Amino acid sequence: MTDSPYMIDITPENFGSVVVEGSLQVPVLVDFWADWCEPCKALIPVLEKLVDEYQGKFILAKVNTEEQQEIAAHFQIRSIPAVKLFKGGQPVDEFMGALPEAEIRAFLDKHIANESNGQLEQAQQMIHEGRTDEAALLIQQLLDEDAANPQAIIAFAQLKLAIGEKDAAQQALESLPLDEQQKPEVAAMKAQMLFESVALAAPPIEELQQKLQQDDGDSEARYQLAAQLVMQNQLEAALDELLLIVQKDRAYGDDAARKAMIQVFDIIGDHPIISTYRSRMFNYLY
To answer: Domain 7-109 class?
Structure first.
């Protein structure tokens, strides 16, 4: 058993100070276990490893249900191992059984304040302010500490986009695990890169509008116009142009307009306007 100051055996006498009061400072993970429980024996070494690794970012409070039956009964523990996480003096989350280390780590990270989160926010603010050299140093520091940190990789991609290194940004995003690639902020970045590529190769907006005045059925010009509008953050106007292509020339670019509308939705994020345009799009499709 590890000798850690962050792992404490719980009794009725110290439950209040360790779990209730202690969770006002840092999360407290309460592990209900017993000597006869084989899954408990599998879980305990994982929890001990993590409590050593996290070095005070959480407290591991161990409740032997055979010796502390009153505490186990109070929390209606009927099956072990049972693990409850306390924050602010109250249980806020739990899991049952001997989960794999990766799942327990993810469970903890949902609740433990991560110093790197503040650094990432700082780096993103630097990028927004054009202080890309400072942001690069901070992001590299985060990647040196954890090369697989998905939020640091996303920040790296944002930095590369800001300084015009689109290929490096694309490679960074593609290096993310699949579940991370499906997150809204990543989908929005990928969509932004697509429209930027189209816009860079397209004529100016005024020229495209003139083309469409001369030939309202020029889907290529309309698609390019939509990309230019996206780059100017005129997203609703871009959707209007793409919707016209869906309506009049569905086959254009192997259904490019419908796909582009979905990517504009990714950029917009959670907004009521999406349901309106999605409904109109479906009306033309079916």
So the answer is: alpha beta
Where, residue-wise, is CATH 1.25.40.10 in the chain? 198-285
Residues of the chain with CATH 3.40.30.10: 7-109
Q: Return per-residue pLDDT of the chain as tens, 286 residues.
A: 456 889 999 999 999 999 999 999 889 999 999 999 999 999 999 999 999 988 888 999 999 999 999 999 999 999 999 999 999 889 999 999 999 998 998 888 888 755 566 788 888 889 989 999 999 999 998 888 778 888 889 999 999 988 989 899 999 999 988 878 888 888 888 998 999 999 999 999 999 999 999 999 999 999 999 999 999 999 999 999 999 999 999 999 999 999 999 999 999 988 889 999 999 999 888 7
Residue tagged active-site, from 19, 26, 40, 72 = 40
Give the C-alpha separation, 220 to 249, whole Å.
Answer: 10
Active site residue 173: no
CATH of the domain spanning 198-285: 1.25.40.10
Class of domain 115-180: mainly alpha
- Beta carbons within 8 Å of 248's beta carbon, 6+ residues apart: 217, 219
> What span, in angstroms and rounded, lies between the C-alpha atoms of 209 and 202?
12
Q: What are the backbone angles phi and psi of residue 94, rounded to the nearest 5°?
A: -160, 165
Catalytic residue among 28, 37, 83, 281: 37
Q: Is 128 helix (H, G, I), strand (E, B) or coil?
A: helix
40 has catalytic annotation: yes
